[in-house]
Amino acid sequence: MLTDLFPNINLEDFWVATYETFYMTIIALIGTFILGILLGLLLYLTTKNGIWQNKFVHFVVAAFVNIFRAIPFIILILLLFPFTNFLMGTIRGPNGALPALIIGAAPFYGRLVEIALREVDKGVVEAAKAMGAKTSTIIFKVLLPESMPALISGLTVTAIALIGYTAMAGAIGAGGLGSYAYYSGFQRRDFDIVLICSIIIVIIVFIFQFIGDYIANKLDKR
Amino acid sequence: MISIKGLSKIFNTDAHNQVTAVDNITLTINEGDIFGFIGYSGAGKSTFVRLLNRLEEPTEGQITINNQEISSLKTKGLRLARQEIGMIFQHFNLLWSRTVKENITFPLEISGVPKTERDDRVQELINLVGLAGKENAYPSQLSGGQKQRVGIARALANKPKVLLCDEATSALDPETTNSILDLLVDINNKLGLTIILITHEMHVIRKICNRVAVMESGKIVEQGNVLDVFLKPKQDVTRKFVEQVMGSNEEEEDLQQLIQSYKHGTIIRLHFVGETTNQALISQVAKKFNIDINILQGKITQTQAGAYGSLFVQMDGDQTEIKQAIQYIEKETSVELEVVQHVN
Ligand SMILES: Nc1ncnc2c1ncn2[C@@H]1O[C@H](COP(=O)(O)OP(=O)(O)OP(=O)(O)O)[C@@H](O)[C@H]1O
Ligand SMILES: [Mg+2]
């Protein structure tokens, strides 16, 4: 039936492309989560009157975040080619896309993390201090758990942006649905392929949104 | 014992402006005291109490709690010292992501109490503050009073010697306030804990404190036993706070008119000063002597040190009986008596 509606689709290529999109999104999302939390925490902790108040570190981290957020993703991939080559040994395929995906998305997520941390009740942080908590305890037992719903919502938004990025990366050789739509669909004038890729990407986005909303809701005991 | 010497805190609000929030406070707080600090908004009460566990760094001065000089501790020592100073807050400051039980466990995790001992201790605390059955509720499912009970249990988890309370009842309705204050007194009796309490409501001081300090612009302007301060307030601020619970003297002027209208009997003012034994005085006198006692006006309030206030009564009947009754009160009880008017 699928082949009747979309005559030009090669099922095997299609499944590989879908798999690659999932692969890139998930691995990049994990990397983005870790790097973004790190950046967000640094921004939050080193800010004025923060726990680790430090103008210099704050400036450097903020500059990193702002610069990499400002560069359009498609240019960022090109800019990072040497770095990617050095790190991954290749600039092609799904793995070749990962460094750019993570470096492109982490600063964005880092800002969302910072905003989420700022929303944590200052009084609760103060109560933990008054109990004699170490900074690491405050981070892992107060700041992160108390901001978890916002961290998850932010991650959902970031995941959806990442799916978009994988498609762009696909157009310059990273594989995945973006690549399939562009090379097999658009360039050969087989628009049914472009259409099916769009539909699948929309479905993937909906799945991520649904899972993200569900987890965030589940965690929110406020 | 807590001893505070020359404690000051100056905030630099910007490059040119400074606020002296706490101004050269010297004070001793004895073990087992419930020491109340009262003052209007901006008097520096919160800043003062936050200096005690160094949530604010003192600009100057010394704080010693149980022979440990808090003001000279380094990071790690301060952390350990803080584990032995409980604190409760106006807005409770519970972790919403944790249940009641988990919130109370938190300070035990911080101080490294082994997992196996935590559960027993937490259950004990939950029973102490009267929250049995709510162990697995989240703070959002509790009322304000229940939240503050969690706050108190949490503050007591590491068996502190001192409990700091910053406006602990200001977000609660009067009835809940009373139940929380009763709990604090109960804890003070059971655990022998020293409680330092900040408030802007005199009835809180009246109800549970044995000592009080009145703060104004960062300074302590008056301090002493609660009863003494109630009896003989020296400063205007203090007088205003005392009027909060005792009413003002204007009422006594009204009384003069009332008294004039009584054409017979003896009008007497009874002054209760920290009375604990003679509270049934009126009925005792009425039984012992053949006179009628008519209560005209009065205001008695209960403090930690007993009843305090005055009562105007009219004694009517046989002259000698009245005289004997007066003598009895003067000689046999500690209630002060003053004959206001004698009509025959
Ligand atoms: N972090 C701060 N920076 C600058 N000024 C401050 C700071 N904290 C307090 N102050 C100032 O110190 C003074 C005392 O404030 P504090 O909060 O101790 O008063 P308070 O007696 O607790 O009042 P309230 O009853 O309203 O809580 C105020 O003038 C306040 O503006
Ligand atoms: Mg205050």
TrEMBL record, chain A:
GO terms for cellular component: plasma membrane. Keywords: Cell membrane, Membrane, Transmembrane, Transmembrane helix, Transport. The keyword Repeat does not apply. One of its GO terms (biological process) is D-methionine transmembrane transport. InterPro entries: AA_ABC_Transporter_Permease, MetI-like, MetI-like_sf. It comes from the Bacteria. It holds the Pfam family BPD_transp_1. It is a multi-pass membrane protein. The chain crosses the membrane at residues 22-44, 56-84, 96-113, 193-216. The keyword Metal-binding does not apply. Residues 18-212 form the ABC transmembrane type-1 domain. It is found in: Cell membrane. Belongs to the binding-protein-dependent transport system permease family. CysTW subfamily. This is ABC transporter permease.
